[in-house]
Specification:
The chain has about 200 residues and is mainly alpha-helical. The chain is built from nine helices and two strands, in the order ααααββααααα. The protein is globular and about 45 Å long.
Length: about 200
């Protein structure tokens, strides 16, 4: 019995640290990371927004890496310097913006390295941007620009001076569109419990 418990612990640790096999397929992501699926659905229902937009933003921002940080500046090509910002975690959230989220939502114990909290943050931020800047809740392109530039920056249209950023925003929109099509094809199967999925019911 003891060896079974040990084996179970090893398997659980392995599952929690296994990198995604196909980050371009939302069905594959949710099949591999069932807790991500549950967290995405919960946040989607809470903020009345689709699941695929935050997932596309997260892929762009961190590549789904829990402890992602901006690269360090290098002096003389090899001496490590400071990072360009305090962005951290799945959603690449700045320290101050994370504190704003915690105060606004009461999620004071939330962690940027936890998917559940990161996906809730993106939904919250997009909902706030939608409300304050009149961006439609399904407008991935402008939601990403607002996510990157901030609520005030988007209002000032600072992105118009950043053609590279607008190209990235179009790429995020394309990824969200792909995720949407994929999700619609597997949504029903994902919603079934593990018992029914295991036996093909």
């Amino acid at each position: 019995m003891r060896w079974l418990v040990l084996l179970g612990c090893v398997l659980l640790v392995g599952c929690s640290t296994t990198p995604l096999r196909n980050a371009g397929d939302i069905c594959s992501i949710y099949e591999q990371k069932r807790s991500w699926y549950r967290a995405s659905v919960a946040a989607s229902e809470k903020w009345n927004q689709p699941v695929w937009i935050p997932m596309a933003i997260m892929r762009q921002e961190s590549g789904f890496k829990a402890r992602a940080k901006p690269p360090r500046k290098r002096y003389f090509g090899f001496i490590p310097g400071p990072r360009k910002s305090s962005a951290y975690g799945f959603a690449q959230v700045l320290d101050g913006t994370w504190r704003d989220y915690q105060r606004a939502t009461g999620n004071t114990r939330g962690k940027r390295r936890k998917f559940r909290d990161a996906v809730d943050f993106i939904h919250w931020y997009n909902a706030t941007n939608s409300r304050k800047n009149g961006i439609a809740g399904n407008d991935t392109y402008n939601l990403y620009l607002g996510y990157h530039e901030g609520i005030t920056g988007f209002r000032r249209k600072s992105y118009q001076q950043k053609p590279a950023l607008m190209t990235i925003a179009r790429n995020v929109k394309r990824q969200a569109d792909v995720y949407q099509q994929q999700y619609q094809s597997c949504r029903q199967s994902l919603s079934r419990g593990w018992f029914r999925r295991f036996f093909g019911l």
